[in-house]
Amino acid sequence: MLEQAFADVYSKFKLHFYQKVFSRFQAREASLTTVETFCMEIIQALGKPTINEFASFVQISPPNAAYKVNSLIKKGYLKKVQSENDRREYFLVVTQKYEDYYNISYSYLSTVMNRIKDRFSPEDVAKIEEMLTIISDELMPEIPLKSPNASHYAPEA
């Protein structure tokens, strides 16, 4: 029961995102391939990784990762920001262009979160938040995020 309920919610979020992405293809607004979209989602979720961190996470060679990153930079969805501590190191940062592209998914997340707050008591909402935090932080150690509990959807300042 629990597995199916979670799978249904997860699938609905994915399907909503894909539906919006494909509607952009219809309107010829999208310029990201499917693989590039996945790369961007990973880079955003990792929170400003280096090319090597990205390559290691997706288990591809650094030159292959650099090729993908350079393509995304040329399309304006990604930029490299030099480290202030180590001038040889660069971090991958999503651009506002990608944030605008990605917000098609975030707006649905906000809609669902508002429905949760309307439907459930504040105590139940707090319990859902506590449980999701535990799931993310403790029960999914294979996928570390640099900034746990931080919004990965908020545009960079």
List keywords for this structure.
single chain, 157 residues, mainly alpha, two-stranded antiparallel sheet, 63% helix, globular, disordered C terminus
Question: What does this 3D model show about the protein?
Answer:
The protein is 63% helix and 6% strand. By secondary structure, the chain is mainly α. The protein has a two-stranded antiparallel sheet with strand order 1-2. Strand 1 (78-82) and strand 2 (90-94) form a beta hairpin. Mean pLDDT is 85; it is low at 147-157.
Concise synopsis of the structure shown:
The chain is mostly helical.
What is this structure's SSE topology?
Layout: H1 2-26, H2 34-46, H3 51-58, H4 62-74, E1 78-82, E2 90-94, H5 96-119, H6 122-137
Antiparallel strand pairs: 1-2
Reading the helices and strands in chain order gives: HHHHEEHH
Q: Biggest sheet: strands, sense, closure?
A: 2 strands, antiparallel
Q: Quaternary state, please? A: single chain
Strand line-up in the sheet with most strands: 1-2
What distance separates the N and C termini? 42 Å
Count of alpha and pi helical runs? 6
Low-confidence stretches at least 5 residues in length (pLDDT < 50)?
147-157
Residues in helices, as a percent range: 55-70%
Strand content: 5-15%
The average pLDDT score comes to 85
Give a count of the beta strands, DSSP E runs of length 2 or more. Answer: 2
Q: Which structural class do you get from the secondary structure elements?
A: mainly alpha
The shape is globular
Cα gyration radius (Å): 17 Å
